[in-house]
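Hey L., structure's done. Input below.
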Amino acid sequence: MSNKKKESPKKKSYGPLIAGTVLLIAGIIFSVYAYNTSYQKSLETGLLLSEAKAQAGAVKEGSAEGDLDALNAEVSRLSEEKLSLERPYSYGLVAVFFAILLTAKGIYNALAGKASGDKTDIRRLAQAGLLTALCYIGFAFFKIDIPAGTEKASFHFGNVFCVLAALLLGGYWGGLAGAVGMTIGDLTTAYVTSAPKTFLLKLCIGLITGLVAHRIFRLSRDHSPKYVTGVTVLACVCGMGFNIVADPLVGYFYKTYLFGVPQDITKVLVKISALTTTVNAVVAVIAASIIYLALRPALKKSGLFVDV
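Output:
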């Protein structure tokens, strides 16, 4: 009599594929409409904002006359107006990127199927929600802004929790936690136009970190502390190394061709982004490695450690 365990039959699912396809079509249509309406108005507002900032700067330096308080109020008003006009197009692009991910998952489910006995791990889902919130907090509240014309870059702690999520939960769930948390951070701050790029890059950071840690080196509870430390640092370096290269490169084409930002401003942004991304990467590698190595024993002891 065979003792071989029977595998659960796999059932093909078409729900995510249908939902992803519908969302993708709707997202593209909405994005095109938003780009040709509200976003074009935001470009005009951006020109007025640049002029108002220049006037306020000249008055502050004493090279021109004018009411500085009134000019600062105008700068603030135009900044808020520009931000509100940029939101619809950014929301549309985020929907498109999310729809592409959902469609890819739907294609996989349709072709490979899903085991009928598979259930969502509640611990992993709860930890993903917590790390999503930490990614948002790390970016939205712990950052230093660096302006470049009407655009910005920043030093922040969001990447720390993005990498940590991939180490704790694996590439897929960790990447989603980082992508969702930091995208919400962009959408609710002055970085709204960076939200679609953030979703894509943070997802990739999580996938790469998780791939190295859990698929290539099989990081698990039965490895030695020395092995765990080495793999943890290597996985973090790989994930953030990707970001150092991809963030400025993708950012240049993204800002230039999807948002029509003038190339002179884009070039300045790329230089600033290269600096901030490198500093953020170093901080993320060090902090995420330390936090993960400290959390492992506590999670094992409490029974909350998730096998990836």
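Residues 15-61 form the longest helix (47 residues). Confidence is low (pLDDT under 50) at residues 1-5.

-- N.
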